## 1
Amino acid sequence: MKKDTLNVEVINVVKPFDPSVADAFKINRNPQLEQDSIGEHKPFKYTIFSVPVASTFTPKQIGFVGLVKPELKTIYNNFISAGYGNNQTPLVETFIHNAIKKNQDIGVYINYLSSKGGVKNAVLNDAFTDAKLAVYYKQAQDQFDWQIDLGGQLQKYNWYGLSPILKPFDPILLASIHPQQTYNTFNAGSSMIYHHAIFQGGTFEYQYFSDDYSTSENRIFLAPEFKFPIFSDHLSTQLSLDYLDGKFNQAYVNTNPLNYQFLTIAFYPNFELNRANLNLNLGLKVSYSSVSKTPQQSKFYFYPNLMASYKLKANGFTAFAGLTGDLHQNSYSEFANANNFVSPTLNIKRTNQQYKTFVGLKGLTNGVNFQLKVSYQNEKDKALFVSNPVKVISTNNKAYEYGNSFNVVYDNIKTLSLEAEAKVNFSKQLNFGGTFAFNNYNLSSQQEAWNLPQFKADLNANYTLNKWFVKTEVYVVGQRKGQSSHIFPTFTIATPQTVIQTAYVDLNFSGGYNFSDGFTVFARFNNVLNDNYQAFTNYEVQGFQALAGLTYKFDF
């Protein structure tokens, strides 16, 4: 083994080096250059060869040219609108909110509309009132946002559509009828949205609904939502709990009370797949509905939830298709809002949309934004509004027992629908559009799809010129069919007679002038053709209506 030649050396540091300015020195010697190495500059001579050229160009000094900035409109956060029209029709609408802090906001919305009547052939009071109030408070946090809502609605309507069976109307009988019905609604709810979390948030809603005939209805709805990332796609899952209970004091044909109670728990998993031109939604809906106090059964329901869309490269259109289904919980409040003249004697059921399949095309071409859609659905226990029969003529009858109210009947219905929608932006000042729908109903037990039109369309156009604005709306509704029947004098319901409600066209204009971004005057003209068409069987509408008012927008 070779001997190690490394030795240990010891270095003693007496003082570490501490540099100072005095340690630096300046070089004073300049470099010596040989004279021969410096070259001489050669002289450069030039002359101008000037040739005159004939020219008529005279330069002219101009000022600076800049871009013209468009005048920006001021967008206000609050408004108050008020107006008054014929038939003693006042209108008040306002939305006011204020940011308490940077991340907190509170607001209130109020809407009031009423009329003393004005239906041409009405022999009973046909006035109405509709008042709404909504208050909210919301707060934004780093991880989530949440909001609380409170609201209420007061609606007053009159059963003025007496059956023509009662003609000629007896003045004593008319004086004994007090046709007013009042609907009261109270709402409370909250919502929460989480950012960048699996738990996406949820909603909670409570509604209490009542009327002048001691009817009451409670509804609770709760729906949390989750979203799980799977690579670049997502699996979303929604749970829901829907509880409904209510009672009517009596049925229409007897004095037995009508009670109902439903509890539906649902689970909706959906897988979302997004690619370059293809979007897929693969899902399933599972519902369990528990029923008590009604003849329907408690059971499980399964529905597909499949949707796909594909963007065509050739023209930029998008083709879409789907297969879905759902369990819809009907309620007294929904029926009363869809038809204000229902009687407080309804049979409440669920509607089972066993399936709905559709295919369509949408896109933009030559400035026209359009959508075409064809669908086919099968619904079990679909609700239809049908006139109640006239009871024995008596001054002791309730106000809704003269063929002037509606019951709900159910049927299994298959519906083929054709729908079209288009919007054209002709210019910055003018745009127009419309929708079209045709429905073909195949019923199981009912003779007709009562009070449902086969054809519906609406057209609209908007035009602005400087501070003026005008809007036109046209509603076209096809022929509908209803029933007319009676119970007197044998107390057995006579064979109902089918009555026709003719098609109608409802033409409306509105417009106004903006004095400034914050102050506007407006006018509305409804049913310009003055057609007293029937919205429901025996219920004519007001003729020509005019209303004018002003809107003031502001900030705090």
## 2
Amino acid sequence: MLKRLIVLMALVMVVITVLAPAPVPVQAVRPPVQANMVYVPDGYFRMGTTMPEYNEALRLCDQAGVSNCSQYFNDELPDRLVYTDAFYIDVYETTNAEYAQCVAAGVCRTPREFSAYSYPSYYGNPLYDNYPVVHVSWYDAQTYCQWRGARLLTEAEWEKAARWNPVNGDVTVWPWGDHIDSGSRLNLCDELCAFSGRYPVRDGYTDIAPVGSYPSGASPVGAYDMSGNVWEWVADFYDEGYYSYGSSTNPLGPYSAQEVVRRGGSFNNPAPFTRSANRAGDDPNTQEHRIGIRCGSSVSAVPYATLTIGGQALVNVIDDTLALRSSPGVGYYRLEDLPAGTVVTLLDGPRYADGYTWWQVRAPSGNIGWCVESADGVQTLMPIAR
């Protein structure tokens, strides 16, 4: 009887060891700053959500059974042209194995929990080394990225890397396009999701997936899992109304706030929360099973572009056009209406009339006239760096 009891206890210990192994010790190795990163060029992109995109997000949100949907998406308005310098971004979300290197170095603290939502053993279990680290706060993310010689991305950098195509300048709702056509592109709350708001596709996972599991969902610059899987901390403090007053050049977010920004959505979120423009604020001390890390790095400093005769500028207007007039002044003949995104060449200026700063430009049509540099708090002519 005693012998059988000893054997039974040994079997129980084996089962417990398999289900919940102790964290495996690792040797600290700091990776080079650009290891497993991709380059994102400098330039302008459209950040935020247009009204048609906003209305479609509301429709998807209602379809998912979420109440008061507008409260989640109003902070994406208005959309605007934003310039960022060039930067690098991690190809993948930070994995358990990568984060463990920082813990082994005595720099990072261990995640708050070693489990994940449906994985009793997660962090420290070799089976999940290639899965995103979770249960880390915004401060933990800052510490890890700094230890690597990198940093958290700004909110603008993150969105640019997620949806901007550097070849043609297009931006899309998700990294791959404007629709979710299958479960092969991202890990979201799908048909098998344990939460409400299921989307009618199957992505293969009910919880977190290994990084890089959805190659067809990569962004145009080559970053994986920017939509779904786990949320990602970014550097900015959160302000719902920041887009209405924030800088259009390398925006850094508000000076301070109670919350910080997370981006990208997660495996337990309905489809509209995984859109590239979606924003969310959270307490920087939050350590959840659905929030992880992705780092970035600056390229050598690039001087900010300025409006210069002989240079080029991009027309930046929101739901409007920019008037090209025969002379500097609001009362002069309107030669042409220039839509957003038009590239013009600067020929003369600046001149000052009627309370505005004017530049003489040549439009793509060949028309030469005068445009205002800014109006109603919006910079309408944005310089293009050479």
